[in-house]
Write a structure and sequence with these properties.
By secondary structure, the chain is mostly helical. Helix content is 84%, strand content 0%.
């Protein structure tokens, strides 16, 4: 089942639960809030989980791809032709990359050109890094360079990019912690206002029901803050907003639960 179909079904199911909840349980505060959380989980967890799983798979492939290129290079230097070198590499274990390697080898054995097979490989993987790498290999090969030296240089470049990304993630780890710390402070302020400040105002003669209005507003603020704080943390830590989905999900569920259940 395609990810788009699963996303639509999840959102539809979550929306139905939310509508039923709003229609029949609006006046039962704890049930209403609990069902809201369930609706959010159903609508978002599966699509975001699949998206993040796809992101993680691509990152693993990007890490393993230089190893695959180096194995091909070593095979060619040992006297193998390019198809033989790729076919020999299929016996190695490259984790999530293994099936793609076997498919690449099969296409070359069927007579598909190395350039076309590589382009198809890059499209199926879905990684922008590998697409750029494949294009560099093809251009260098067409310009007259020997394939073993081209693959070796490209593999070194990709590994160097991975090292730079890992160093960046390590250096900004403290900034990621600051993002969580700021959200916790914001959540604490919202909790204090909900449970201490607003009741005092209501006791002083504010209009009846105003506390519930502010409670709902603060819950919405916590959700909005959690979504965008998580996306920002993911962008800083791993260089992509997709990586922020897990942070957003954790912050939103935690913040909403604190203001609803405590």
């Amino acid at each position: 089942m395609k990810m788009r179909t699963i996303t639509l079904l999840s959102i539809a199911a979550g929306s139905i639960i939310f509508i039923i909840n709003y229609r029949f349980f609006q006046h039962y505060e704890h049930i209403f809030m609990a069902l809201n959380i369930v609706a959010i989980l159903i609508a978002l967890v599966l699509p975001l989980g699949m998206k993040y799983e796809q992101f993680s798979r691509i990152k693993k492939i990007e890490t393993l791809f230089p190893i695959f290129l180096r194995d091909i290079t070593d095979n060619i230097k040992s006297g193998m032709t390019l198809p033989q070198a790729i076919r020999a590499s299929t016996s190695n274990n490259y984790g999530v990359l293994t099936n793609h390697v076997k498919e690449l080898s099969a296409k070359i054995e069927w007579g598909i050109s190395f350039e076309n097979a590589l382009n198809n490989f890059a499209e199926r993987v879905g990684s922008n890094v590998i697409k750029r790498t494949v294009q560099s290999i093809i251009e260098a090969h067409e310009s007259g360079g020997t394939i073993d030296s081209v693959l070796e240089v490209v593999a070194s470049s990709v590994q160097e990019i991975e090292k730079i990304n890992k160093k960046r993630a390590t250096r900004i780890y403290s900034q990621m912690l600051n993002g969580y710390f700021i959200y916790f402070i914001f959540l604490g302020v919202m909790y204090a206002m909900t449970h201490f400040l607003l009741p005092a105002f209501q006791f002083a003669g504010s209009q009846a029901g105003i506390q519930e209005i502010f409670n709902e507003m603060f819950r919405n603020l916590v959700v909005i803050q959690g979504i965008f704080a998580g996306l920002a943390i993911g962008k800083m830590a791993e260089g992509t907003i997709t990586a922020g989905f897990k942070h957003s999900f954790f912050l939103v569920v935690m913040g909403y639960s604190v203001l609803t259940l405590l």
